[in-house]
Amino acid sequence: MHLTTQEIPVQNLEIGMYVSRLDVPWVQTPFPIQGFRITKQDELDLLAHYCNKVYVDQFLSIVDVKSGLQLTSKLGKQTSSSIDPKTARLIKEKARFKPRTETYEVSSKLKKEIKSAQNMYQQVMTQMSALYRDMEQNGYLNVSEVRQASTKMVKSIIKNPNALAWLCRIGINNETLHQQGIRSAVWGWIFARHLGLSERDLRDIGTALLLAPIGKCKLEKELLFGQHSSQEVEAYRQHVELTLEETNKMFSSSHQVNYILSSYCERNNGTGYPKQLVGNRIPFLARVAGIADYYEQLINPYPGADALTPVEAISHLYNSRGSLFQPELIEEFIQAVGIYPTGSLVKLSNESVAIVVEQPEKSRLRPRVAILKDSNHVALEKPKMVCLADDP
Question: What pTM was computed for the model?
Fold first, then answer.
């Protein structure tokens, strides 16, 4: 938590306080993800509807935050007792992992894998675009083709996870749902690979995340951007059931894929949907897929919301551990994706600007980068490759 940030129950908030973090996902509320200053009573009422507590930045607030803190100390026992004891125990329960069945080694150099992955990525993008167009026009989606696309991309992830991660970052385009689904699937595959899950599990996680936008295609378009009322948030949450309605019609969709789809929007503290499952009651593969999808929503949100940088998104996830997601899983995800994911723009200590091109598994904090601008911010004619592990 930031040094100037304090946790305050919603009943103690005042107009003028600056809310920097919620106890529920920003994407499930109508509030701007970058934080906001409370300016009217309606915002206090909405915060009370969505949250139990929020985090207020004293520095950015224009009123004294201490009064809220004093009330917090008086009401501490009441706040903690408001959670059912069984739910509190489940939230704190250590994450149970599926046993590691594989140890994947990088078997293809990044440059070589990017060439083959790029062609496949474009093919899958075109294929998914056509599939979703058919879904919107004819109400039918060929799941077998989605599983084939998932299988192809899993093979690339296994060889070298950096290639598709690179393509996700340099090819950002938020115009269509299927593109966001593909990027979510890539983060899911990278995470599942890191956890040593089987190829079947990787394929099913990817297939579920590729299929996840089906229900969103059936929503009113206004629900996919801008701020929403509580009724609109409830309407948006129907996308999970709408997706399952379609996949249950398709004989080729597997039970495990539907199991993931039914629970990937659940959250560790029971604030997710549709069943408000808690902790380990959420299926393990759904927990893996949920973190990957949430991360993608942070760095590539729907129109009308500000995107976080990968570093900011990782920080947000880290601050969400223990509430939205189990701490052990968040720590594993950060190890899988890295603090500076492949394709991220970074500023080096000498003020030069570079792009992360590869993350050695044993030195993720010192990745291989391509310097694009020198310390005077003058663009280089040819990017300079530097491995920070060798030349920190």
Answer: 0.70
